[in-house]
Every structure is written in C-alpha cells, then in structure tokens.
Design brief:
Helix 1 (14-20) runs antiparallel to helix 8, helix 3 runs parallel beside helix 8 (237-272) and helix 8 (237-272) crosses helix 12 (356-371). 39% of the residues lie in helices and 16% in strands. The longest helix has 36 residues, at 237-272. It starts with a strand and ends with a helix. Strand 12 and strand 13 form a beta hairpin. The protein is of the alpha/beta class and 374 residues long. The protein is built from 12 helices and 14 strands.
Length: 374
C-alpha cells in the first residue's frame, strides 16, 4: 500500500507503541488512586504533560488532555462562551475554512453571533480583516493554524497580537500544524490551542487543549477532579504516555522530517503539474511541506479515488458521506473554485515514511488513469 493521506491520520511509530505497552498490561492502576500502584500511572501522565508543556512553552497545569481534536475544539468554543456569556450576545470571529468541528459547533451554540472571514484565492486570511471584524462584544477569535485540505499557514503571530491588543481571547486549531511548525503559545499570544496525537505518529483517541492560566472556561464533561476539573473521567493512561512519546520524538526529528517530506512533495508536484488539465489549488508561498491539493479536469474525485485504491494508493478529497458520494469541499469553494472544480480535486498528504519510489509509482498510476480519459 502507498499511503498518501497523512492529513487524515498517521501511522503510529513503533517506538510510541513500545512506550505505551507497559501501561496497557503491567502498570494499569487508576491514576486517581492514592496507593503506590496508582501513583505509578499518575507519574507517567505527569511526565507526558511535562514533555508537551515544554514543547509548547507552557505550564504543566495549562495542558488538558481530551479524546482528540474535535473534543478540544468543542471545549474551546463552548467552554469559553459558557464561561463568558453573562446573559448577553457574544461575538466570535473565525474563518470560512475552519475544520467542521469548529464550523458545526458554532452553528449549535446559542446566544452568539459569528463573523466568518473569507480567505483570498490562496486560502490566506488577511490579518487586517480580523482586526476590522472585532466588535465591542467580541470574546474570541478562532483561526486554524494550517488548513488540512490546502495546507495554507495562517499568520497566527500577528493575529495573536491583534487579539491581545483588543483584550480578546485567541484560539488556534493546530491539529495539522504541530508536526512540522514551531508553536510557542506565549510568543504567539495564544489563549487556547487544540492539538492531538494521531497527526504526529501517536495513538488515536487522545488530544489536548492548552488553556492559558486564568482563561475563563467551563467544563463540558463534568465528573471528578481529573484534568484540573476541566475534563472529568478516568484518564486514557496508555494513550497519554504515547502522546508524550510522540511529542518527544517530534522534538528531535521535526526538521529532518520537514525537509524530507517537502522534497518528496516538490518532486510530486513538479511531475504531476506537467500533465495537461492539472492545477495546484493553492499556490500560497507559505503552506505545509507535505500537502498537495490537485485539480484534475478530466476526472472527478470519486472516480480518481476509487481507481487509485485499485492500485492500493490511498488519498482523499474534501469530504465524503458514507455512500462514497463526494461533496464539494467548503474550503475549495471558499477560495473561488466552482462546485465542479471542487469535485475534481484530490488531496495528497505525504509522510516521512513515504519514499521517492512510491511517489514515482503514484505519478505513473495517475498518468495511466488519466490516459483512459483522453
């Protein structure tokens, strides 16, 4: 299999599995227990929290473990509205190209008004548009760091400065960016940061929300005193250990991975874009190093994905329902593509496990598929 859907999820690193395994069968005590066996688990969680906090330049108590990015985004939005909404309408600023866990959550929160910033044709959010959208009742700016479909990286540093200047909380969805980009929550004036393990070669089902000390937020999952009373429930011990190990490995290998996948990505784009009827859907100079979103005039996304799968090549389109009917991506239509163009676009997202031979094979297969439509 040639796996080119690393924006969806990544293969768990063997070293992460090795770190997790003892906490599945040997050290399985409840971390909330006072006896020695439980405290072994507590120390393992504290160690992972320390690794992650150091990586983001935060305090340990500011890292709250969740079940993943979707829960973290829900907690950030709903928790802030519930913690700030004093029987008045609150205003939130976000963009049209956020993840569905942001857009769909905002649709169901009551007593808020939302401004959706439209990106330019490359997918870039203009900092001045965010600044101009701020109102007297604005409580939160929520902007994704790097888009999962076109890879465009937003200027969170300057958006953070605007948020701080206006005394507005700033939330960043960093699920896609953590693997390759530097994130310093203090330098970027971030109050809340969503991130998770399965995008960085860690386990699924574990994520976190950084919450700056003093940020007014209410818990969504109420229970015991776990996670500083912000997220109740017995901790996912082995996954948290794996999360910490994935971040530890990332710390030492990030720049090597970044350089390698960018070389593969550039080689892929160079050859694919020579084919008639192909187009790169974002030519932004500042985008994620591993991701290409390609428009194919001759073939729709559904047909291309099915035929790639016959060759054991995995890629993806914007979004798909369970019947395999490809819906037009809201990200692609937001940057100016027609519905038809969006339905003819494929996302290829590479990982450091991929090889140049796999890239060459994929290019060859794509050419064979397109030749059928001549």
């Amino acid at each position: 299999m040639i796996y080119l859907d690393n924006s969806a999820t990544t293969k768990i690193d063997k070293r992460v599995i090795e770190k997790m395994t003892p906490y599945l069968s040997k050290y399985y005590g409840n971390p909330s227990s006072v006896y020695k066996f439980g405290q072994i688990s507590r120390r393992a969680i504290d160690r992972s929290r320390e690794i992650i906090a150091n990586y983001l330049n935060s305090d340990l108590q500011e890292i709250i473990f969740t079940s993943g990015g979707t829960e973290s985004n829900n907690l950030a939005l709903k928790g802030i509205v519930n913690g700030n909404n004093k029987n008045k309408i609150s205003h939130i600023i976000t963009s049209e190209i956020e993840h569905d866990s942001i857009l769909n959550t905002l649709k169901e929160i009551k007593n808020i008004e939302v401004t959706y910033i439209k990106p330019d044709q490359t997918g870039k959010i203009k900092v001045e548009d965010v600044d101009n959208a701020i109102k007297e009742n604005t409580i939160l700016i929520s902007i994704i760091h790097a888009n999962s479909e076109i890879g465009v990286i937003q200027d969170i540093e300057n958006i953070g400065k605007i948020a701080k200047k206006n005394n507005v909380l700033f939330h960043v969805d960093a699920m896609q960016s953590l693997k390759y980009l530097d994130i310093d929550v203090n330098k970027f004036n971030i109050d809340l940061l969503t991130f998770g393990a399965h995008k960085i070669n860690g386990p699924k089902g574990i994520g976190a929300l950084y919450i700056k000390r003093g940020t007014p937020i209410q818990a969504l999952i109420k229970g015991g005193s776990q996670e500083y009373r912000i997220r109740g429930g017995t901790e996912n011990l082995s996954a948290i250990v794996g999360f910490g190990e994935a971040v530890e490995l990332l710390k030492s290998e990030k720049y090597k991975r970044q350089e390698y996948v960018k070389t593969l990505r550039d080689n892929f784009e160079r050859d694919i874009l020579k084919i008639n009827g192909t187009k790169l859907n974002s030519n932004a100079s500042n985008r994620m190093p591993h991701l290409s979103n390609i428009l194919f005039d001759k073939i729709n996304s559904e047909s291309m994905l099915i035929q790639l799968d016959l060759y054991n090549i995995s890629a993806s389109a914007g979004s798909a329902c369970s019947s395999l009917s490809i819906e037009p991506s809201h990200v692609l239509t937001s940057i100016g593509l027609t519905e038809k163009e969006a339905k003819h676009s494929i996302r290829f997202s590479l990982g450091h496990e991929n090889t140049q031979i796999e890239i060459e094979k994929t290019i060859q297969v794509i050419k064979e598929i397109l030749n059928k439509y001549e």
